[in-house]
Design a protein that fits this description.
Blueprint: E1 2-6, H1 9-27, E2 31-34, H2 41-48, E3 58-62, E4 64-66, H3 76-83, E5 93-96, H4 105-118, E6 126-129, E7 154-159, E8 164-169, H5 171-176, E9 179-184, H6 190-197, H7 203-208, E10 213-218
Protein backbone atom coordinates (compact mmCIF):
# COMPACT_ATOMS: atom_id res chain seq x y z
CA UNK A 1 0.00 0.00 0.00
CA UNK A 2 1.47 3.34 -1.10
CA UNK A 3 0.42 5.38 1.92
CA UNK A 4 0.84 9.09 2.65
CA UNK A 5 -0.29 10.23 6.07
CA UNK A 6 -1.17 13.85 6.89
CA UNK A 7 -1.85 15.51 10.21
CA UNK A 8 -5.20 16.89 9.10
CA UNK A 9 -7.76 16.69 6.31
CA UNK A 10 -6.70 20.22 5.28
CA UNK A 11 -3.12 19.09 4.70
CA UNK A 12 -4.42 16.01 2.88
CA UNK A 13 -6.51 18.14 0.51
CA UNK A 14 -3.69 20.56 -0.27
CA UNK A 15 -1.27 17.71 -0.94
CA UNK A 16 -3.78 15.93 -3.18
CA UNK A 17 -4.31 19.16 -5.13
CA UNK A 18 -0.56 19.55 -5.67
CA UNK A 19 -0.30 15.95 -6.82
CA UNK A 20 -3.16 16.34 -9.28
CA UNK A 21 -1.64 19.55 -10.66
CA UNK A 22 1.65 17.71 -11.10
CA UNK A 23 -0.04 14.97 -13.11
CA UNK A 24 -1.65 17.60 -15.33
CA UNK A 25 1.41 19.80 -15.78
CA UNK A 26 4.21 17.23 -15.96
CA UNK A 27 2.51 14.06 -17.18
CA UNK A 28 -0.21 15.41 -19.47
CA UNK A 29 -3.18 14.13 -17.48
CA UNK A 30 -6.39 15.51 -19.00
CA UNK A 31 -9.15 13.08 -17.97
CA UNK A 32 -9.99 12.86 -14.27
CA UNK A 33 -12.82 10.91 -12.64
CA UNK A 34 -14.12 12.39 -9.38
CA UNK A 35 -15.72 10.63 -6.44
CA UNK A 36 -18.47 12.05 -4.26
CA UNK A 37 -18.68 12.11 -0.49
CA UNK A 38 -17.51 14.65 2.07
CA UNK A 39 -13.74 14.09 2.06
CA UNK A 40 -12.96 15.40 -1.47
CA UNK A 41 -15.05 18.56 -1.26
CA UNK A 42 -12.21 20.70 0.04
CA UNK A 43 -9.92 19.28 -2.65
CA UNK A 44 -12.39 20.24 -5.38
CA UNK A 45 -12.72 23.75 -3.98
CA UNK A 46 -8.93 24.13 -4.12
CA UNK A 47 -8.80 22.76 -7.67
CA UNK A 48 -11.53 25.17 -8.75
CA UNK A 49 -9.20 28.05 -7.84
CA UNK A 50 -6.14 26.53 -9.52
CA UNK A 51 -4.42 28.77 -12.06
CA UNK A 52 -2.50 25.69 -13.23
CA UNK A 53 -5.59 23.70 -14.22
CA UNK A 54 -7.18 26.69 -15.93
CA UNK A 55 -4.37 26.62 -18.52
CA UNK A 56 -5.14 23.12 -19.81
CA UNK A 57 -8.07 21.43 -21.55
CA UNK A 58 -9.61 19.03 -19.07
CA UNK A 59 -12.44 16.51 -18.96
CA UNK A 60 -13.90 15.96 -15.50
CA UNK A 61 -16.01 12.83 -15.05
CA UNK A 62 -18.39 11.89 -12.25
CA UNK A 63 -17.29 8.51 -10.93
CA UNK A 64 -20.72 7.49 -9.66
CA UNK A 65 -24.07 9.00 -8.83
CA UNK A 66 -27.21 8.51 -6.79
CA UNK A 67 -30.56 8.46 -8.60
CA UNK A 68 -31.46 11.98 -7.50
CA UNK A 69 -31.75 15.30 -9.32
CA UNK A 70 -28.61 17.40 -9.72
CA UNK A 71 -29.99 20.01 -7.31
CA UNK A 72 -30.53 17.39 -4.58
CA UNK A 73 -27.98 17.79 -1.73
CA UNK A 74 -27.04 14.11 -2.20
CA UNK A 75 -26.03 14.55 -5.86
CA UNK A 76 -22.33 14.04 -6.56
CA UNK A 77 -22.55 16.08 -9.76
CA UNK A 78 -24.26 18.87 -7.84
CA UNK A 79 -21.52 18.85 -5.19
CA UNK A 80 -18.82 19.00 -7.87
CA UNK A 81 -20.64 21.88 -9.55
CA UNK A 82 -20.75 23.80 -6.25
CA UNK A 83 -17.05 23.23 -5.48
CA UNK A 84 -14.88 22.60 -8.54
CA UNK A 85 -16.99 24.88 -10.74
CA UNK A 86 -17.98 27.46 -8.12
CA UNK A 87 -16.08 30.13 -10.06
CA UNK A 88 -17.40 28.93 -13.44
CA UNK A 89 -15.97 26.15 -15.55
CA UNK A 90 -13.15 27.28 -17.89
CA UNK A 91 -14.14 27.24 -21.56
CA UNK A 92 -11.59 24.50 -22.27
CA UNK A 93 -13.01 22.18 -19.59
CA UNK A 94 -15.81 19.65 -20.06
CA UNK A 95 -17.94 17.76 -17.57
CA UNK A 96 -19.39 14.29 -18.01
CA UNK A 97 -22.08 13.31 -15.52
CA UNK A 98 -24.90 10.80 -15.19
CA UNK A 99 -28.04 12.48 -16.48
CA UNK A 100 -30.50 11.74 -13.73
CA UNK A 101 -33.12 13.86 -15.47
CA UNK A 102 -33.66 10.92 -17.86
CA UNK A 103 -36.33 8.26 -17.42
CA UNK A 104 -34.48 5.61 -15.43
CA UNK A 105 -31.01 4.64 -14.16
CA UNK A 106 -30.39 2.19 -17.01
CA UNK A 107 -31.05 4.87 -19.62
CA UNK A 108 -28.79 7.29 -17.73
CA UNK A 109 -25.93 4.75 -17.67
CA UNK A 110 -26.33 4.11 -21.42
CA UNK A 111 -26.37 7.85 -22.14
CA UNK A 112 -23.20 8.24 -20.09
CA UNK A 113 -21.51 5.60 -22.25
CA UNK A 114 -22.68 7.34 -25.41
CA UNK A 115 -21.28 10.67 -24.24
CA UNK A 116 -18.06 8.93 -23.18
CA UNK A 117 -17.64 7.65 -26.73
CA UNK A 118 -18.58 11.00 -28.29
CA UNK A 119 -15.88 12.71 -26.22
CA UNK A 120 -13.33 10.19 -27.46
CA UNK A 121 -12.57 8.93 -23.97
CA UNK A 122 -10.52 5.80 -23.45
CA UNK A 123 -8.18 5.06 -20.57
CA UNK A 124 -8.62 7.60 -17.79
CA UNK A 125 -5.54 9.47 -16.63
CA UNK A 126 -6.52 9.73 -12.98
CA UNK A 127 -9.31 8.48 -10.73
CA UNK A 128 -10.05 10.06 -7.34
CA UNK A 129 -11.57 7.42 -5.10
CA UNK A 130 -13.14 7.37 -1.68
CA UNK A 131 -13.74 4.42 0.60
CA UNK A 132 -16.77 3.64 2.73
CA UNK A 133 -16.72 2.11 6.19
CA UNK A 134 -17.89 -1.14 4.56
CA UNK A 135 -15.09 -1.11 1.97
CA UNK A 136 -17.18 0.12 -0.96
CA UNK A 137 -15.88 2.62 -3.46
CA UNK A 138 -17.76 4.45 -6.19
CA UNK A 139 -21.07 2.54 -6.19
CA UNK A 140 -19.33 -0.83 -6.04
CA UNK A 141 -20.56 -2.44 -2.83
CA UNK A 142 -19.49 -5.72 -1.17
CA UNK A 143 -21.31 -8.69 -2.66
CA UNK A 144 -22.78 -6.72 -5.56
CA UNK A 145 -22.97 -8.37 -8.98
CA UNK A 146 -21.85 -5.01 -10.38
CA UNK A 147 -18.31 -5.99 -9.38
CA UNK A 148 -18.40 -8.76 -11.98
CA UNK A 149 -19.32 -6.53 -14.93
CA UNK A 150 -16.50 -6.53 -17.49
CA UNK A 151 -18.16 -5.33 -20.72
CA UNK A 152 -19.48 -1.89 -19.73
CA UNK A 153 -18.02 1.55 -19.08
CA UNK A 154 -20.83 2.40 -16.67
CA UNK A 155 -23.81 0.57 -15.26
CA UNK A 156 -26.81 1.08 -13.03
CA UNK A 157 -26.84 -0.68 -9.66
CA UNK A 158 -29.57 -1.27 -7.09
CA UNK A 159 -28.04 -0.96 -3.60
CA UNK A 160 -30.24 -3.04 -1.32
CA UNK A 161 -28.83 -1.77 1.97
CA UNK A 162 -29.60 1.81 0.93
CA UNK A 163 -32.79 1.02 -0.97
CA UNK A 164 -31.57 3.23 -3.79
CA UNK A 165 -30.56 3.10 -7.44
CA UNK A 166 -27.09 4.29 -8.30
CA UNK A 167 -24.98 4.49 -11.44
CA UNK A 168 -21.25 3.87 -11.49
CA UNK A 169 -18.17 3.54 -13.65
CA UNK A 170 -17.20 -0.12 -13.61
CA UNK A 171 -14.29 -1.89 -11.95
CA UNK A 172 -12.28 -2.59 -15.15
CA UNK A 173 -12.37 1.10 -16.12
CA UNK A 174 -11.08 2.16 -12.70
CA UNK A 175 -8.35 -0.48 -12.74
CA UNK A 176 -7.27 0.49 -16.26
CA UNK A 177 -6.71 4.15 -15.35
CA UNK A 178 -3.12 5.36 -15.39
CA UNK A 179 -3.24 6.49 -11.74
CA UNK A 180 -5.56 6.19 -8.75
CA UNK A 181 -5.69 8.31 -5.58
CA UNK A 182 -7.74 7.18 -2.57
CA UNK A 183 -8.71 9.93 -0.13
CA UNK A 184 -9.78 8.96 3.39
CA UNK A 185 -10.20 11.06 6.51
CA UNK A 186 -11.58 10.39 9.95
CA UNK A 187 -11.32 7.67 12.55
CA UNK A 188 -14.27 5.76 11.04
CA UNK A 189 -12.04 4.82 8.08
CA UNK A 190 -9.17 3.42 10.11
CA UNK A 191 -10.48 -0.13 10.47
CA UNK A 192 -11.32 -0.62 6.81
CA UNK A 193 -7.98 0.81 5.67
CA UNK A 194 -6.15 -1.46 8.11
CA UNK A 195 -8.04 -4.46 6.76
CA UNK A 196 -7.32 -3.52 3.14
CA UNK A 197 -3.63 -3.20 3.99
CA UNK A 198 -3.81 -6.67 5.56
CA UNK A 199 -5.40 -8.24 2.47
CA UNK A 200 -9.19 -7.96 2.87
CA UNK A 201 -11.00 -8.33 -0.46
CA UNK A 202 -13.23 -5.27 -0.26
CA UNK A 203 -14.33 -3.50 -3.46
CA UNK A 204 -11.76 -0.74 -2.81
CA UNK A 205 -9.08 -3.45 -2.77
CA UNK A 206 -10.41 -5.01 -5.95
CA UNK A 207 -10.07 -1.75 -7.90
CA UNK A 208 -6.64 -0.82 -6.50
CA UNK A 209 -4.74 -4.04 -5.82
CA UNK A 210 -1.83 -4.58 -8.20
CA UNK A 211 -2.23 -1.25 -10.01
CA UNK A 212 -0.57 2.06 -9.13
CA UNK A 213 -2.56 3.65 -6.34
CA UNK A 214 -1.68 6.28 -3.76
CA UNK A 215 -3.60 6.47 -0.49
CA UNK A 216 -3.87 9.97 1.02
CA UNK A 217 -5.14 9.64 4.60
CA UNK A 218 -5.22 11.87 7.63
CA UNK A 219 -3.74 10.81 10.96
CA UNK A 220 -7.14 9.72 12.31
CA UNK A 221 -7.67 7.30 9.41
CA UNK A 222 -4.14 5.90 9.35
CA UNK A 223 -4.05 2.13 9.75
CA UNK A 224 -2.96 0.60 13.02
CA UNK A 225 0.45 -1.02 13.26
Amino acid sequence: MNLRIFESSDELSRAAARELERHVRAEGARTVALSGGSTPQQLYTILGRSSVLAKYPMIWIVLDERWVSIDDPRSNAGMIDRTLFANKMPDTHRFLRFRTELNDPGTAAQKFEEEWAAMGLGTLDLVILGVGDDGHTASLFPGSSTLEVTDRIAIEAWVEKLQMWRMTITKPVIRAATHRMVLAAGESKREVITRVRDGADYPIAQVTSGVETWWFVDRAAAPTA
